[in-house]
Design a protein that fits this description.
Layout (H helix, E strand, L loop, with lengths): L2 H10 L1 H10 L6 H14 L8 H34 L12 H19 L3 H12 L4 H8 L3 H24 L1
């Protein structure tokens, strides 16, 4: 099966893959994981895949395992950080340095400019999803568009932000 064939199998079985992710504990992150799976499928080099549906379910399961590990590691890291640095030290400010504040403001300006240069709907969807924490399905219902349109607009926004990040890193 070629890359185009794998993408076709993904699109035909999108609902099954989403149910699989929900059933395995993804909860509200199921749509995000499915989007991540689509990105991985789209980036897969062309070549034969013997059992494409099994391949997709295994990839979805691997994403769930990665997500679980990441959440667990983040929890441990947060706990360790709070134990080590959770209290205020006398004579030291909890505020970031002026330099860090300026760098963060500059990066935010670049990101905002990147979002200002994409179509308005894509920027609005990105902000609703990433800033307001609204799920893709809810955004689609709210804007009266399909989930695939939401996913497409998110890809546009992520692409613009990746390019902006490259510009920041190169500077």
């Amino acid at each position: 099966m070629t890359k185009a064939g794998l993408e076709a199998v993904f699109l035909e079985n999108r609902a099954r893959l989403l149910r699989f992710l929900f059933a395995h504990g993804a909860g509200e992150a199921a749509e995000d994981l499915l989007q991540e799976l689509w990105i991985k499928v789209s980036a897969t080099p062309p070549g034969p895949i013997g059992a494409p549906l099994s391949y997709l379910f295994r990839a979805a399961n691997n994403l769930m395992v990665d997500r679980h590990r990441s959440l667990r590691q983040a929890s441990v890291r947060e706990r360790d950080w709070n134990e080590a640095f959770g209290t205020t030290f006398p004579g030291k400010s909890d505020e970031p340095s002026g330099e860090r504040t300026l760098i963060a403001r500059e990066a935010l300006g670049v990101a905002q400019a990147a979002l200002d240069n994409i179509p308005g709907r894509a920027a609005a969807i990105f902000r609703r999803h990433r800033i307001d924490g609204i799920g893709q399905r809810d955004i689609a219902a709210e804007m009266n568009i399909s989930i695939s349109t939401v996913e497409s607009d998110l890809r546009v926004a992520y692409g613009a932000l990746l390019e902006a990040r490259r510009r920041i890193d190169d500077a």
